[in-house]
Structure formats: structure tokens, C-alpha cells
């Protein structure tokens, strides 16, 4: 989209997470002028440093007379971020510009809005960032009624109906996988790369049929490496299958007999699709590259309408 | 036991684990002369450094004419340790001196024996160190028929009958608890100390009735801290309860309707006892302070008889 057809810089969309910042600079017609990614995520920044970080990335594009709108989603709006954008309570449409928190900046050349996350009181759950991906998905699939699965460090299962997030549930599956691979005694036995599809599918079945046994099954990976021969790539596929299978066992009410769209096109998203397909669940995978940006565009449009 | 009634140093018992070394110096009648604990565990040592480490700890007690027997158990006998002491296959009595591997040392003033662990082919499992605690328990309870529960980083459930280890199963519960407390996103919400008995017992029930939900229940701890008020000590008790409950759900064939002895008197062992008692299982707790030493004494006695 970069090139001679784009107009002057008009607004910026920012996905500002725990460890990364992604910024898209757009013209009046939402054509992308430039995209930037840095590691200036929440963990790197004090609350006083967010404005300077933005100004640094945008300085060459700012005009004294026309302040630039900057719409941000993600952990930037958490209590530990720039400023708290209070959660919208579920059920709710994915938060739009109408729910955004306006940040008072020192520099008058930017107008910054933080989008809130969503909270669910019972069972207690929260999301911050995923709601904007969901908004992006719904902007392209406005009639969607069914379940979204968002794999990640903290994967989410989300029930969508009539344009609203009805309920959701978060699983620490991705974080558990990373911790076990890198920090536990299994790090000696589980490969950092490699895969074995049969091991993965069998592990899914094992975990679904005996979910409670997970902590024992994990140690079995180590024992198998010590007294038998379990190649590291097979151990990796089995570990992934055990943890995703455990998640599927608990998330069954979300996917059983329902349309599921898996957001993402990563290796992990592919694994979720294979696992669901093996369980006989109809599933389609949707690339998320532009989904967050689409959600930020929707939010920007609402803000424009509200401030007309 | 230290004092004027002990004779000259005769042999040494060593519990040589992954991170620690505990050495007891004993006289001819197994009276303790001295006890030493250092952090010279397996992770600190190259295989060539074990002998020097021992000589360092024993130098003042060695006599040129009477080599001192040193009986070791634990990870020192693993493939990554001093020298591999191959696992005894299950079912087996806890390995005694008859199964020990004699290490060739450069210094003739010590005679070193490494006790093997136990392996189980199906389901694959291993132990190394716990078998000596079990031998110690059996030396004091020779007629014991039932189940032993050994809480720890990798907790073990062991079925004992007629003096033999019939079967066992290892759970990574303790390691999962430590990883989640210290390395995961829950570290912001889970206290390093403190306890809440009601939270613990409820969590045990929750995990036993819905074991698959564990990865979601874990994230709930975080959400509850963010949108409600979950004190860190309550979160700690609930996390412990969820993980121990998950283990109990899978270990049910070991404890249901059976006599269980929990080895240990740590806070964790107490938690296992409370959890089992709440599930209506008769349980007794046995201090393990001397159990490993008792097991090493048994092994030493066998070696004496064999080398007479």
C-alpha cells in the first residue's frame, strides 16, 4: 500500500502490547504509509515514557496545526501501562472509539486514545488486545455467529453472537508450553524445533480422555527419554498435544457442534486447527495479519463520527 | 548423637542430589559423628570433580590403612552424575548394597558405592533418591503394605507390597507450582508466602471435579486479582490446591480405599495430608529427616555382609 497513491499522514494505529509495539501510519483513506515495529512494550516503559516513545516514532509526520489522532489497543491501557482504560463488562460489542480513554498529552500535536479491554465477572476473566482483533474480524464478517479461538500465550475462546462478545475463557496453555520447554526439567528432553504429527494427535486424544493425568504425562516425557528413546522433536509434538488437548477438553462447550474460526496463521494456530479437525469439529483458519489494524480502523471511524 | 559416646569415623552416608549434597559421618555402630550439607549438587559438578568434593569433606577423617566406605544415593548415580548406576527394574525391593555400583577412585582411602534408582517400563517412569527413602521407611516398617506418597519437586505415589516397589507414578506438581509462582504471569498475583486453608480445600474440590479446566483455572487467578480482590496468600493457597487436586484426581487408584503414608513433614507434605483427609482417605504423615539415612544404613549393612 506504500507508494505514490497514498496521501499525507493523517492518523496512526498502534498495537501496544507487553513486549512489542506495532505502529501503522495511515492517510485519510486508511491507506498505509509506513509500518514500524519496536520492542518498546509495556515491560520496557515507565508511564511517563509512553508519550516520548510515540513522538519519537512520529516526529517527522506531525504538523503543528492539525493534531494527529493515535488509536492504541493492548496493554498500554492496563493499570501498569500509560493510563488505565477501564475494562468494558461482558456481554459487549468489541470496544470501539465510544469506549476509548483520551490521554492528556503534553505535546498538542497528538491526540491519543486508548481502547479498553473486556472483563467478565463470572467466571472471572479479562482480555486486552484480543478485543481489537475480534473487532477487526467482525468488521469483515459482520454476520458471524459462533466461536472464535485465538491461540497465543494466553489463548482465548470467545462466543460471538449478534456482534457481541457473549462470553469468553482464557487458558494459559501457551505460557505453560514455553515454561515447560525452557525452564523445567523437560528442557533436556523437549526439542526447541521439530514436529511429529502422529505424536501430536495421539497426545491430543490422551489428554482429552484422561485430562487429570497431565502432570504425570509430563513426567513420562522425561522418563521416556531416559529409559527409552523419545526423539526431542517427538517430545515437543507430544508436549504440545498434551497441553492443547487439555485445553480442548475444558473448552468443549465452546467448540462441540459449533462453527469455530481460529484466528491466526502461525504454527500454533495450525496445531489448533489440526487438533479440532481430528476431533471432528468444523474449523476455518483466518489470517490475523491485518485484523488488529482493521479493529483499530473501526475504532478510529467511531471516534471521527463522535467528534464531528 | 554427637559427643563422647561415638567411636572413630567408620563410614559415610551421602544423599547426593541435583542441587544439594548431604553427608553423614558415622562410627562403627552407625552413631552419627558429624553431618554436613553443601550446595555441591550434580548441577555444580563435572564428573571428574566428585572425588575431590568427597575428599575435601572427609580429608580429616581418612586413614591410610583402612579405606572408608562411602554409600551414595541420588542423582550422583545418573548418566549426568559421577558414574551411571543403572536403574533396577520394577517390581523390585528398594535397591540395596547388592545393586550398588562400585566407583573406581584414584585415592585408595575411600571405597565409593552408588545406589541405583528404579525404572518402570510401562507406563515409563523413573526415580533416583526416593528409593532410598523408601528403603529407610521399610527398615522401620518392614510389614508395610499399602501406598507411599512422597511429595516434592516431582512427587511420587508408590505401591508397596511384601517389601517390594510394585508400581509408581511421578507427577511434576511441585515443579509446576514453582514455575507458575516465579516465572509465569501469575507471579504478580501469587504470594511467595502465606496461606488460606478454605481456598486450598475448595481448590482441591474444584480440580478433582473438573480436572481438565486447570489451564483456565490458572488464568482465573490472574483475572480475579485484576477485576476483583484476591489477596496474594489466598491465590497461593488456591494455586497449590488446584495443582495438588489435579494430582489427586489422577492418582486416585493409588489412594482410594487404601492406607496412605505421606513421607515428609514439610509444609507441602502437610498440604497433601490435609487434601487426602478432606477426600476421606486415611493418611498418616511420617517424618523423613532420617529416612534417607536409614536407607543408606541398610545398604551399607548389605555391602558389609556381601564383602565379609
Automatic annotation (TrEMBL), chains A, B:
Protein name according to UniProt: 2-dehydro-3-deoxygalactonokinase, putative
Record-level Gene Ontology MF annotations: 2-dehydro-3-deoxygalactonokinase activity
Domain of life per record: Bacteria
Transmembrane segments: none
Signal sequence bounds: none
Record's keyword terms, sorted: Kinase, Transferase
InterPro entries from the UniProt entry: DGOK, DGOK_C, DGOK_N
Pfam name, any one: DGOK
Biological process per Gene Ontology, one example term: D-galactonate catabolic process
Originating organism: uncultured marine bacterium 582
Amino acid at each position: 500500500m506504500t507508494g505514490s497513491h497514498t496521501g499525507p499522514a493523517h492518523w496512526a494505529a498502534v498495537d501496544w502490547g507487553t513486549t512489542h509495539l506495532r505502529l501503522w501510519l495511515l492517510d485519510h483513506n486508511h491507506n498505509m504509509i509506513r509500518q514500524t515495529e519496536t520492542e518498546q512494550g509495556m515491560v520496557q516503559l515507565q508511564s511517563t515514557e509512553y508519550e516520548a516513545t510515540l513522538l519519537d516514532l512520529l516526529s517527522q509526520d506531525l504538523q503543528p496545526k492539525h493534531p494527529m489522532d493515535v488509536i492504541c489497543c493492548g496493554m498500554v491501557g492496563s493499570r501498569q501501562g500509560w493510563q488505565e482504560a477501564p475494562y468494558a463488562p461482558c456481554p459487549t460489542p468489541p470496544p470501539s472509539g465510544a469506549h476509548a480513554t483520551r490521554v492528556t498529552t503534553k505535546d498538542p500535536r497528538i491526540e491519543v486514545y486508548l481502547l479498553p479491554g473486556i472483563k467478565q465477572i463470572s467466571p472471572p476473566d479479562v482480555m486486552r488486545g484480543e478485543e481489537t482483533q475480534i473487532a477487526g474480524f467482525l468488521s469483515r464478517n459482520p454476520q458471524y455467529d459462533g466461536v472464535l479461538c485465538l491461540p497465543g500465550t494466553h489463548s482465548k475462546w470467545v462466543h460471538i453472537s449478534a456482534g457481541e462478545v457473549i462470553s469468553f475463557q482464557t487458558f494459559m496453555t501457551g505460557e505453560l508450553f514455553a515454561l515447560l520447554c525452557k525452564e523445567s526439567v523437560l528442557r533436556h528432553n523437549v526439542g526447541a524445533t521439530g514436529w511429529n504429527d502422529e505424536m501430536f494427535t495421539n497426545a491430543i486424544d490422551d489428554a482429552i480422555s484422561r485430562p487429570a493425568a497431565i502432570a504425570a504425562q509430563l513426567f513420562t516425557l522425561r522418563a521416556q527419554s531416559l529409559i527409552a528413546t523419545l526423539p526431542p522433536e517427538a517430545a515437543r509434538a507430544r508436549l504440545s498435544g498434551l497441553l492443547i488437548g487439555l485445553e480442548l477438553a475444558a473448552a468443549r462447550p465452546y467448540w462441540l457442534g459449533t462453527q469455530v474460526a481460529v484466528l491466526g496463521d502461525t504454527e500454533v494456530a495450525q496445531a489448533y486447527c489440526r487438533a479440532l479437525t481430528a476431533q471432528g469439529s468444523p474449523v476455518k483458519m483466518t489470517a490475523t495479519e491485518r485484523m488488529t489494524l482493521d479493529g483499530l480502523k473501526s475504532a478510529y471511524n467511531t471516534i471521527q463520527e463522535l467528534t464531528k
